[in-house]
Amino acid sequence: MREVFADLLAVDGVKGVVFFSAAGDLLFEEFPINAASRPPVGRWRALLGTVAGFREAELLFEKGRIYIRAAPEGTLIVATGRIAPGALIRLTCDILMPSLARLKPAKGLRRFFSR
Q1: What is the rounded distance in angstroms from the CA atom of residue 90 to the CA atom of residue 26?
Q2: Is residue 102 within 8 Å of residue 72, measured between CB atoms?
Q3: What are phi and psi of 96, to 5 degrees?
Q4: pTM reported for the whole predicted model
Q5: From CA 88, how far away is CA 65, in angstroms rounded?
Q6: Phi, psi values for residue 54, rounded to 5°
């Protein structure tokens, strides 16, 4: 699944990407920069409940931003630094949304073997 999010992770200023299914299951999480300080999954889920009903949201903080994008397949959360190209992040999300529709979460032992 990493190849779907590779372009988004490569955008300058992106600190991490989290993707939850529509049922709320964690399907993907990667924080290549400072992985030790990433929030636990429970905090991301609490955030999902807060923005339920929104198509997209952007939260601004002192040390960064969080961009949240809802789709029928699930919710995408992008953590960025303060200086990150918001328009490029939104465009990249627009481009990868059709790829999310084709993803099927692996069940059982299949999740350990790539195709």
Answers
A1: 21
A2: no
A3: -85, -10
A4: 0.80
A5: 14
A6: -90, 145
